[in-house]
Design brief:
InterPro entries: Oxoglu/Fe-dep_dioxygenase_dom (IPR005123), Phytyl_CoA_dOase-like (IPR008775). This protein is of the alpha+beta class and 254 residues long. The chain has one domain (4-229): Sandwich (Jelly Rolls). Helix content is 19%, strand content 24%. The radius of gyration is 17 Å and the shape is globular.
Length: 254
């Protein structure tokens, strides 16, 4: 008998991505949205695309969110029971603004060996073609990692792109509602446009690894490396932060 989990993994193996609907409840999504506003107020010089990795391990709410059992259960389907966080990053595009993300493969940027990792993209806001949703090329995860080339002729988040011709007619727009989770492979080609709508588009990327994947960065422990489930494996991890009233954003259970 083929289970729903089996079908999900088959879709992922074929296409390089899959979507889980209504994973996170509205109350926690509301806290995540408030967290983005809180981060902007605390770090006013950071753009919506710059709320990233080096902030994670010192932020109790961020750690609570990436360690939610509903997200870890999804990650476990793909990676097994021993799970760590490699990195996490809000990508928040303000109305009529926000930078494009050019076509790229995540794995081309990451110090991981082997490249066994998945991204969970948690929709904090509704994500549509009008406000710059993620677009993917199904099946492109079966290619090796491409070289990168610098792109400074257009305003973009990464400053680079995969050095390969992309047939955009094959692209699929990943339309998500708040609380939905999209999972994608480190080799899949994906991109997003700027936000041309009056609505913010915010998502949280969460990069999970099995604890058998080594973080090869010279910085040990890596700034956002956290042991979230199971055995520690081959890496050194950051300690979990303690909530301090007035220093951290208040949240349920803090």
């Amino acid at each position: 008998m083929i289970t729903e989990a089996d079908r999900t993994l088959q879709d992922f193996d074929r296409d390089g991505y899959t979507i889980f609907r209504n994973v996170i409840d509205p109350a926690l999504i509301a806290e995540a949205s408030a967290h983005v506003d809180w981060l902007h107020a605390r770090y006013p010089d950071r753009l919506g695309e710059d709320l990233a990795t080096e902030l994670v391990a010192g932020d109790p709410f961020w750690v609570r969110l990436v360690g939610d059992d509903r997200l870890l259960d999804i990650a476990e389907l793909f990676l097994g029971p021993d799970l760590a966080l490699f990195a996490s990053h809000y990508i928040s595009k303000p109305p009529f603004s926000g930078k494009a993300v050019l076509w790229h493969q995540d794995g081309a940027y990451w110090p991981l060996e082997p490249m066994r990792v998945i991204t969970l993209w948690l929709a904090v806001d509704e994500s549509t073609p009008e406000n710059g949703c993620v677009r993917v090329i199904p099946g492109s995860h079966k290619d090796d990692l491409h070289e990168l080339r610098t792109r400074d002729d257009v305003d973009n988040v990464l400053g680079s792109e995969s050095a390969v011709a992309v047939d955009e007619s094959a692209a699929v727009d990943l339309v998500l509602s708040p609380g939905d989770v999209e999972v994608h492979h480190p080799n899949i080609l994906h991109a997003s446009t700027a936000n041309t709508s009056p609505r913010r588009r915010c998502g949280l990327t969460i990069r999970y690894i099995p604890t058998s994947t080594r973080i090869t960065s010279e910085q040990q422990p890596f700034t956002s490396a956290l042991l979230l489930r199971g055995q520690p494996g081959v890496n050194v991890y950051q300690p979990f932060p303690q909530y301090v009233p007035g220093e951290h954003m208040p949240f349920a259970g803090a």
